[in-house]
Amino acid sequence: MLRSNNSTSPLCSFGSPWPDLNDGLFYNDVVSTSSDSGLTLIHFYSSKYKNSAPLQGWLQRIHNGQITIDGEVVKEPKAILRDGMELVYHRLPWREPDAPYLLQVLYEDDDMIALNKPPGLQVLPGGLFQQRTVLMQLQWRASKGSSSLAIQGSHPVPVHRLGRGTSGILLCAKTKVAKTSLAAYFADGTSLIGDSSNANMEKSKTRKISKVYRALVNGILNQDKIIIKQPIGTMRYPGVAKGLYVASPSGKPALSKVEVLERDSQLNQTLVQVEIESGRPHQIRIHLSFIGHPLLGDPLYDVGGQPRCFDSEHEDESFAEDGGYERPAKPVPGDCGYYLHAHQLVLSHPHPSKNEQVIKITAPLPSILRTQAETEELM
Question: Pseudouridine synthase RsuA/RluA-like domain: from which residue to which, for each copy (predicted)?
């Protein structure tokens, strides 16, 4: 049985304006005998959390009284740590960068909710965005009782991510059962990539989730259909603590199916549809740039699936007002400007008693990602 959201009907929206400042953050640590006991306070933080701030930044935080030991503020950087001490670092409240807050509901039932995420909104907390996220808007909505399961203590959570600059369908679970099932759907699709056995090929035909994106790329793609199997790995990159995802021969398998929808030779750009059968971070951006057609407006990825600019010999050691590193001068993955939209999602219902239901969800297309025929039809 197929159920579908009606993309032509009015979509309900929700969202609360962001406060000027967030609540700050508290980071807790307990000193352990094996590695931390006997260290000075400054040595502990500047070595264990060197990706958060340089040495001078941690000195500033200590002198500001932002660190407590067993509940007492300690401003002496050379204080000696002993086994069992409880350390708390308070990151002071800050104004997060501007971000949209309204979310459209594309589909909702007792088990899940599908949202139309606008570009510029981060899905989960990270970096400068700790409050201005989809997750926070979902939590606020549940606490206000506007969710059907709010009275039962339901806390909807995203089960996959979209890049901050990517728009479109974001699937969220409202129950533990749905979260487990949906997470398995995404994991199963990714695990099949790279295994060409007959058993896995048959299993891939019965995948329980399918994702289709729209993208606008630089240049004219000559082939109507392209399958990209380039592995994706990581490299060191300023401002990205865990490494930047790039095209890499030693990376993990990834598969994207690209289909040309419309070519514009005058503007030297191509509108494409992309179905991804794996879920590597920034996969579409990396794959399309790997074949020589980066997303139009992508500030980060260039031809070959590599960053546009990279100087591994120089990393900025200056620090911001809160002691942390200044925002990197070079582009980072969260930067926006490209055109990528999660357009359609087809999945089996995540509740065990409803698995026979196939749900198709469609997110309205931004005007720049419509074909000429689609634009004329709307007009």
Answer: 112-289
